[in-house]
Automatic annotation (TrEMBL):
It comes from Hibiscus sabdariffa. This is Probable purine permease. It is found in: Membrane. It comes from the Eukaryota. The chain crosses the membrane at residues 18-42, 48-71, 91-110, 122-140, 147-167, 179-200, 212-237, 257-279, 286-307, 313-332, 393-414.
Length: 420
């Protein structure tokens, strides 16, 4: 029996390791991507279609891990039928459709970044979590726990705190019409990508073949290929290919730095997309959306460091709320996995063992109540600290302490029902 459990344990460990790697890759792409794109625009770049093309234009890089996986299979499984690509036609078609949507999303996002500061565009993108949660519930029947609901709520409140002080971020040389249009385009990009993430998860579930990580990389490559195709058509219509050499010569940081920024931007954005679908494969689209949202304050801090954007107290409160929501989600996942483990052991227990386990269950239930009570005390303390911090740091915004107490009260109410 222990022998049978060993492969399953190894597979679980491998999946967790893969999840961690994809989270790191997603973090790199999510934080550095907007900064690189904004760097292109603030120093003289003006081609929106070209900037959107860079988000997926580095798709040939994915051929490298796919080829490595192919040669690894050839050496370790010489007798099996080995192919470079495993994707079937219907899965290819689904990935192509998602890729076209991704190309449109790339343009909407690039247009917003061209008109808005990094801090403002990142704030708007945070609303993607709400869209992801809603579409995940509709498309893939995502199950919500009190902890995941709390994470969505806290991250949304964090974005709301930031959104209350964006009026002073409009560039001086930009008209109100351009600013509003950039805001709307970024919001559209947020909604569309909030739909794309659950759509990718639905594709995994509906695929009529086994989904391996090698196949996930193939799906990502096809998505980026078609997204790049959409942006290439836009560049041809807009005449970007003729203008790029002249734009590089007139770039404020120099022609060489122009091409360095362009290449680095393409590679970093590929990290974002590959990490996002990797997290969906290892966990869910909701977790992918939560990670993107929780990294929002990190992008804010990096924008302050590199672009000298203002860092007000509400950004610090948003950072605390985001970290709180992130920890809440993972605490719920750990608790859920521990709850599911005893179910496998009770199937082989005898009648006397079942009676013993029932007695242990009562003691475990008592311990669980103590744990829930402790969790409630911690949440009360965290809610109090965050609310007081908001009151001290941004007392001129009277609604923030109220929002902090409402958030803590809502979570404690939900948690008390789940622990009862």
């Amino acid at each position: 029996m222990e022998v049978g459990k060993e492969p399953e344990s190894n597979a679980t460990s491998m999946r967790k390791t893969l999840l961690i790697i994809n989270c790191i890759v997603l973090a790199i792409g999510n934080c550095a991507g907007p900064l690189m794109m904004r760097l292109y625009f603030i120093h003289g770049g003006k081609r929106v279609w070209f900037s959107s093309w860079l988000e997926t234009g580095a798709w040939p890089i994915i051929l490298l891990p796919i080829s490595c996986a192919y040669f690894h299979r050839s050496r370790t499984q010489p007798g099996s039928q080995n192919k470079l690509f495993f994707m079937k036609p219907h899965l290819f078609l689904a990935a192509a459709v998602i890729g076209i949507l991704t190309g449109l999303d790339d343009y909407l996002y690039a247009y917003g970044v061209a008109r808005l500061p990094v801090s403002t565009s990142a704030i708007i993108i945070a609303s993607q979590l709400a869209f992801t949660a809603g579409f995940a519930f509709v498309l893939v029947k995502q199950k919500f726990t009190s902890y995941s609901i709390n994470a969505v709520f806290l991250l949304t409140i964090g974005a709301g705190v930031l959104a209350m002080r964006t009026s002073g971020d409009r560039p001086a040389n930009e008209s109100n019409r351009e600013y509003v249009l950039g805001f709307l385009m970024t919001l559209g990009a947020s909604a569309l990508y909030g739909f794309i993430l659950p759509l990718v998860e639905l594709t995994y579930k509906k695929a009529k073949q086994e989904i391996s990580y090698a196949l996930v990389m193939e799906i990502q490559m096809v998505m980026c290929l078609f997204a790049t195709g959409v942006c290439t058509i836009g560049m041809l219509v807009n005449g970007d290919f003729k203008v790029i050499p002249r734009e590089a010569r007139e770039y404020k940081l120099g022609e060489t730095n122009y091409y360095v920024i362009v290449i680095c931007s393409a590679i970093i954005w590929q990290c974002f997309f590959l990490g996002a679908i990797g997290v969906i494969f290892c966990a869910s689209s909701l977790l992918s959306g939560i990670l993107i949202a929780v990294l929002l304050p990190v992008t804010e801090i990096l924008a302050v460091i590199f672009y000298n954007e203002s860092f007000r107290a509400e950004k610090g409160v948003a950072l605390a709320l985001s970290l709180w929501g992130f920890l809440s989600y993972f605490y719920g996942e750990i608790k859920e996995s521990k709850r599911n483990q005893p179910a496998l052991q009770t199937e082989v227990a005898s009648v006397s063992d079942r009676q013993t386990s029932q007695a242990d269950g009562h003691r475990s239930s008592s311990g669980s109540s103590v744990e829930c009570g402790l969790a409630l005390k911690v949440e009360v303390l965290c809610g109090f600290v965050l609310s007081v911090g908001a009151s001290k740091c941004i007392s001129f915004v009277s609604v923030l302490p109220v929002m902090g107490f409402i958030g803590g009260a809502l979570y404690m109410t939900v948690l008390s029902f789940s622990c009862s």
